[in-house]
Automatic annotation (TrEMBL), chain A:
MF GO annotations: ATP binding; ATP hydrolysis activity; ATPase-coupled polar amino acid-transporter activity
Keywords assigned: ATP-binding, Cell membrane, Membrane, Nucleotide-binding, Transport
Location, primary (coarse class): membrane
Enzyme Commission no: 7.4.2.1
Keyword presence, Cell inner membrane: no
Name of the protein in its database record: ABC-type polar-amino-acid transporter
Catalytic activity line of the entry: a polar amino acid(out) + ATP + H2O = a polar amino acid(in) + ADP + phosphate + H(+)
Automatic annotation (TrEMBL), chain B:
Name of this chain's protein: Histidine/lysine/arginine/ornithine transport system permease protein HisM
Segments traversing the membrane: 32-50, 76-96, 108-130, 254-276
Primary location: membrane
Native organism: Streptomyces acidicola
Homology family: Belongs to the binding-protein-dependent transport system permease family.
Gene Ontology biological-process entries: amino acid transport
GO MF, one example: transmembrane transporter activity
Length: 254, 311
């Protein structure tokens, strides 16, 4: 249980001339809930997207489950992975977006069975059975036939979580999963995430929900300006931040 | 959609609370005036045509003539097949145009530039006369023939119309693909879907909502454009009608007859378009718009229930 699920060593990422990540070092252990906080524009989403190969790392090394992200190393040469190889790696990493990104032309059930059927080649009947279990688990068994436009934001996000879980990922990434929700809907989504954490899922969660981080989080990192400013146990960092930038950020959000 | 809800209302229980307002509606006098003027002009037109030197009887006589019906069939066949080439070609070109590969996107750009930039009639003539450039068609052991035998009027018409249409459809499809939120592609990729699967399963179905309405227009346009292929010796509705016109002496009458057939066909296509649009709207609005039949029924039931209330 002490192997690293995600390991970043001096990860850099820039868009054109703008450097967004300026050397990120961190380690997410298997089975832990890893919270990422920081002001807007500090590079949290970019880092998550790097983990999932949606962005290419420019410098440094990023490993998921012991394997290099985006490249294959042979001797001391790096080879870019082909699109099909990248797709293969993404199967094991679930991602939940701030704006849900459910497929609007499919019902909740169809959203959940899409990837298992199309990507893994699971039979439709089998995928449907599993999807119903997952929808029940997120409390939406009765909404299987609804289209996303017929669901509230909180319901959509829970379907999105079920959709990601349907691929049986070993790692789940959450990018501000409750930021686009009305306050009264946030609780339902956090409950689902808490339940998932208890089941032992490894989770990297970008969030502004400090209560969630404190209660559920095992580790916490505060990022600012593309670097890790402070990290440690969430309860310690949140109640007794050491760094001045952390203090000023927390005083604004708490 | 909203007016359906309004008319639904009387059928349900009347709203509780304050008494419903009964006010004298605004009278739209302008509408009456416009209607009278329009009817007047229509009457004059009918009078002029009825008294003109036109043998109206010839139209019903030939309306279901064998050759006319063959022409209708050929016109429809050509429309369907050309549109098929156009749509498939258009999707491929649009994907090529949006591809990151500079070679494929330039090829698509050039194709669209050429086929949109020249008149379709000229393209038809060029296909027809390509025998001057290629005397033989030689696909090795598979097929070998003289160009003029290979390039029948039908194939000329089909290629001329279809390849031209592909250029227009490419622009329509490109707009549709660009209208789909990038988050959709991202979500599909994050689930491990390949580029092509993402395109086929996620992006194109959503792009259809943007693509279908202008494509319906293209189909209707195509149906009418097929009349140009008379120029390359292909017999379709207009050509047959003209032939009958010259032999029977009822030239103008046969043109009216053809026009009537075109109107019938385009009207049928418009109805089909409505249902296809409705299909691709699923999931995008909370409630599907009613079919015309459902609309008629709700109006009828709301009328009868209103009468019931009055009685
Ligand atoms: N695709 C992109 N192209 C250019 N700049 C980008 C792109 N994605 C993110 N950025 C920039 O990177 C910075 C960090 O963004 P992001 O990772 O989304 O921050 P956070 O999620 O912490 O708010 C921002 O300044 C943003 O404008
Ligand atoms: Mg972000």
């Amino acid at each position: 249980m002490t192997t690293a699920m995600v390991k970043a060593e001096g990860v850099h990422k820039s868009f054109g001339h703008v450097q967004v990540l300026k050397g990120i070092d961190l380690e997410v252990k298997s089975g832990e809930v890893f919270c990422l906080i920081g002001p807007s524009g500090s590079g949290k989403s970019t880092f998550l997207r790097c983990i999932n190969h949606l962005e290419k790392v420019n410098a440094g090394r990023l490993y998921v489950d012991g394997e290099l992200v985006g490249y294959r190393q042979k001797g001391d040469k790096l080879y870019e992975l082909k699109d099909s190889e990248v797709a293969l790696k993404r199967r094991d990493i679930g991602m939940v977006f701030q704006r849900f990104n459910l497929f609007p032309h499919m019902t909740a059930l169809e959203n959940v069975i899409e990837a298992p059927v199309q990507v893994k080649g699971v039979s439709k009947a089998q995928a449907r059975e599993r999807a119903m279990q997952l929808l029940d688990r997120v409390g939406l068994g009765d909404k299987a036939g609804s289209y996303p436009s017929q669901l509230s934001g909180g319901q959509q996000q829970r379907v999105a979580i079920a959709r990601a879980l349907a691929m049986d990922p070993k790692l789940m990434l959450f990018d501000e999963p409750t930021s686009a929700l009305d306050p009264e809907l946030v609780g339902d989504v956090l409950d689902v995430m808490r339940d998932l954490a208890e089941s032992g899922m490894t989770m990297v969660v970008v969030t502004h929900e400090m209560g969630f981080a404190r209660e559920v989080g095992d580790s916490l990192v505060f990022m600012d300006g593309g670097v890790v400013v402070e990290s440690g146990n969430p309860r310690e960092v949140l109640t007794n931040p050491q760094h001045e930038r952390t203090q000023s950020f927390l005083s604004k959000v708490l | 959609m909203t007016d359906i809800k309004k008319t639904d209302r009387p059928a349900d229980t009347p709203p509780a609370g304050p008494e419903a307002i009964r006010a004298v509606p605004v009278r739209h006098y302008g509408r009456y005036v416009a209607a009278i003027v329009a009817l007047g002009i229509l009457g004059l037109l009918i009078w002029a045509f009825a008294n003109g030197d036109i043998n109206w009887g010839a139209i019903p006589d030939y309306f279901f003539n064998d050759r006319i019906l063959t022409g209708v069939r050929e016109t429809l066949l050509l429309t369907v097949l050309s549109m098929l080439i156009g749509i498939v070609g258009g999707v491929v070109l649009a994907v090529m145009r949006l591809s990151k590969n500079p070679v494929t996107s330039s090829i698509a750009w050039f194709y669209i530039w050429f086929f949109r930039g020249t008149p379709v009639l000229v393209q038809l003539f060029v296909w027809f006369n390509l025998g001057f450039v290629f005397e033989y068609i030689n696909l090795g052991p598979v097929y070998k023939d003289e160009w003029s035998d290979f390039m029948t009027p039908f194939l000329t018409a089909l290629l001329g119309l279809g390849l031209n249409e592909a250029a227009y459809m490419a622009e329509i499809c490109r707009a549709g693909l660009l209208a789909v939120d990038e988050g959709q592609t991202e979500a599909a990729h994050a689930l491990g879907m390949s580029h092509s699967k993402t395109l086929r399963r996620i992006v194109i179905p959503q792009a259809m909502r943007v693509i279908v309405p202008p494509t319906g227009n293209e189909v209707i346009n195509m149906l009418k454009t097929t009349s140009l292929v008379a120029a390359v010796q292909y017999y379709e509705l207009l050509r047959f009608a003209q032939d009958i016109g010259t032999t029977s002496g009822a030239t103008v009458e046969m043109l009216f007859l053809a026009a009537a057939w075109y109107l019938i066909l385009t009207s049928v296509l418009s109805v089909g378009q409505y249902y296809i649009e409705r299909y691709y709207a699923r999931g995008s609005s909370r409630q599907l718009p009613p079919t015309p039949w459902q609309r008629v029924r709700t109006h009828l039931t709301s009328l009868s229930s209103r009468k019931g209330v009055a009685a």
